[in-house]
Amino acid sequence: MQLIERVAELSAALQAERDAGRRVGLVPTMGALHAGHQSLVERAAAECDVVAVTVFVNPLQFDEIGDLAAYPRTLAADVALAAAAGASIVFAPPVVEMYPGHPAPPATTVHVAGLTDRLEGASRPGHFDGVATVVTKLLVMAGPCRAYFGEKDFQQLGVVRQLVRDLCLPVEVVGCATVREPDGLALSSRNSRLSPDERRAATVLHRALQAGAATVGAGERQAGEVRAAMASALGREPLVAVDYAEVVDPRSLEPVDEIVGEVRLVLAAAVGPVRLIDNLAAGRPTVDDGFAGRPTADGAPAGRAGVDADAERIGV
Prior knowledge:
- The chain has 316 residues and is α/β, with parallel strands linked by helices.
- The chain folds into two domains: 2-179 and 308-314, HUPs (Rossmann fold, 3-Layer(aba) Sandwich); 189-282, Pantoate--beta-alanine Ligase, Chain: A,domain 2, CATH 3.30.1300.
- The protein is built from eleven helices and ten strands.
- Mean pLDDT is 91; it is low at 288-309 and 312-316.
- Strand 8 (263-271) and strand 9 (274-282) form a beta hairpin.
- The strands form two sheets. It has a seven-stranded mixed sheet with strand order 1-4-3-2-5-6-10, with helices on both faces. Strands 7-8-9 form a three-stranded antiparallel sheet.
């Protein structure tokens, strides 16, 4: 296992792997790794010859200083988990390596219009500019690779796919199914900040998504009724303050009125002081465009036979 802190060293190490004919997998993270991250690394290791995991708590994507300060930092444990899951490199740069002018903000940032205007983008202004900027930097540093992202951050996955297409980066973006606790709670580094009562209450997020998906599965085509089913489930938990519970198009993330084909149910809520997000696929795609991916624990439908439909190939 190599622990790398410098950009030049990471780029050189991964280029040497490619020069030797090996395929590179990249798993960008903010650390505090858990079983969800582990699943990303394991899939990357199964599909690639060498896997690099990045561990960087990106200050640009936090809209609250307190949230940034409270974010868990567990580098030694992260390195151990990454190695056990099949990674051979962990890139854990200091902030000044990623942003040389820190604490002054960088003069150049990346903005993905449209996809970032709603949902998390509306609730957390500037958040996705921070995400897009750091992901672009990491992908440029890594060079041609397959990059693995979890579907739990579904809007983030869409933003990454869009910036890779728009900037013609030599990267194949792979979306991976959400990993959940036995009671349905999506794994998140933020879960460790929940009190026992808040942890119990947080399970209502997945139950609300299941209620919405069941409504679609029963034949409901009016999105308002699906939103109402989710809101009703969430409203029964007093420790949860809902930000949004929406039914959106899975590509544009625009809210829909009528359900035709596949939709994505997305929600965000504060459980005590902790903001959590989750999502679930519902309905069926009317056209197999290669976006939906193989069947997952969340019920996402299959893509084209013989095609890795949850990966988008750009330039490699």
